[in-house]
Amino acid sequence: MDTLIVHVLTSLLYASVLFLIAGGLSLIYGVMRIVNLAHGMLYAFGAFVSAWAVGLMATRWPVAALYTLLPLGALAAAGLGAIIEPTLLRPFYKRAEEYQLLVTFGLLLILADLMRLLWGPYPLSASQLYESLGSMTIGDTIYPNYNLVVIAVGILAAVGMWAFVYKTQFGVVLRATSQNMRMASALGINVNRVYIQAFTLGCFMAGLGGAIIVPSQGAVLDMGVDALIMAFVVVVIGGLGSLEGALVGAVLVGVVREIGITFFPEVELAVLYLMAAVVLMVRPAGLFGRP
Amino acid sequence: MSALPLPPARVLRWVGPLLLALVALPWVVEPYQTTLFSYGLVMAIAALGFNLLLGYTGLLSFGHSAYFGAGAYAVALIVKYLKVSSLEILIVGGILASAAISALFGFLCVRYTKIFFGILTLALSQVLWSLAFKFFWVTGGSDGLRVPTPSLLGTHIAPGEDKMTYLAHRYYYYVLAIFLACTAIMWVIVHSPFGKALQAIRDNETRAEFVGVQVWHYRWVAFLVSGTYTGLAGALWVPLNGLTTPDILHWTFSGEIVFFTVLGGFGTFAGPIVGAIVFNYLKTFAVGYTVYWQMFLGVVLVTMVMALPTGIMGMVARLTQKWRRAPAS
User: Fold this and answer.
1) DSSP A225-260
2) Would you say the pTM of this structure is higher than 0.80?
3) What ipTM did this prediction achieve?
């Protein structure tokens, strides 16, 4: 029973971070119909900014105050998104999807090296935050308390996104633009502004994912590329463009991954990719996507 | 059936001198330069195959690393377990492996187009990557597999012969011959009724279907040919590199294949060849010049896509047109 609880918590931990990344990716696709291959890099960017800020202040501030620095990563990713959308992506909405994929692939290469340039090739860590919360024992297992914070942030983000998209004025505008961009534009919505807001919000989520994971895992250069592929798996299962899909997909992937790591570690990744491939073949639009 | 379509005279005029230059290359430049060029030729074979899908069928695959890797790993595994050293047998093995995998993956993928096709090919290629990565006792994991220099047409590398000279002479000609054969075959393919049908599908799927083209079937065969070409490139790449690692199965390598095809211009027959060779030099230069080579390549790619979507060949065509028109007016 106790081990089961630990497994469930670990699945949820992974699912929380995945939801933040995949939710952003899905939101951006849902509104702008663009698949951002550089999305994982924004997640890594958030992680690096947070780790850098924490490292900078680590000796000067008490540990409790360092927590307030974590959201910086999310804000920085959002800021970067707000620069990228109008300059690099906007010229491509009217062109073939192939070019959109190519330009975001180029962006991925640029951002990967930008981070290497800014923070060097070595991993950054912010583990003092992770350690300061201590741990608890579940049965025979020691479980770090910080992971509960990550899960809480993931749940809060899911609830917050739901409220934002379905209960606010902006959410209505967002959904209207997503369903029919021309109609929304004809009704007086400034589509360009909605696009930049949606993209910024998507990047904010990715950055937040990076920011909350960095105390436990550190920031490494490869994390962005790996995260993107897992986010793909999630949105393909859940349906590109659907936030509910991203949530269900993230939980599904989190659970399957945990089962995989426990019982068949060699093929754990292959099973996840195959899951995505099978969903694409059976339901190309995903579990929650609209065709 | 009419005679094979030959390239127009203005192109044929260039083929002779170009061939001569290619044959003379190892005698003119340093062995290092020849080997570097061999890499370019190998990638050009992959690009030719890739472009059958992108340029002629209108499908953007983001998973061609799978077939390149299948060819490369098939060679490495045959060497490891069957102790074969004849490159001809290894190549047949590589072709069979990549053909099998592209037949299977293609069967699954060609039901979709556009973004879903791209993501599905990507996801499937990552399956292979993760398997190569995790089954380290078979594949060597992230260390990869070493492949000793194979024998060509029954002759081994002479004892004491420098590997660099071997690669720069005998192996270069071997690669060149296969590259020329591949180019000729691809030329025939794209100008055959089959190739025309693919272009019809690319331009208008519905119309193609109405004139009796079995869209699904044609796409699948195109996928198979494309993957096999890329697999052959992978098989030829291994002896050159001496080592195969999971990096060539990772989706970022697929991105590179897409990159150089677009760099050369996917709307033309020669574009991918030019793109692969130029990209090879570009990357070697960038890697040697700065640790931030990815950023350099990224900037090149973004600039290309924004300013020159028709690639190098598109630019050349526009320039020669302008140049030809100028004296007349």
Assistant:
1) HHHHHHHHHHHHHH-TT-HHHHHHHHHHHHHHHHHH
2) yes
3) 0.83
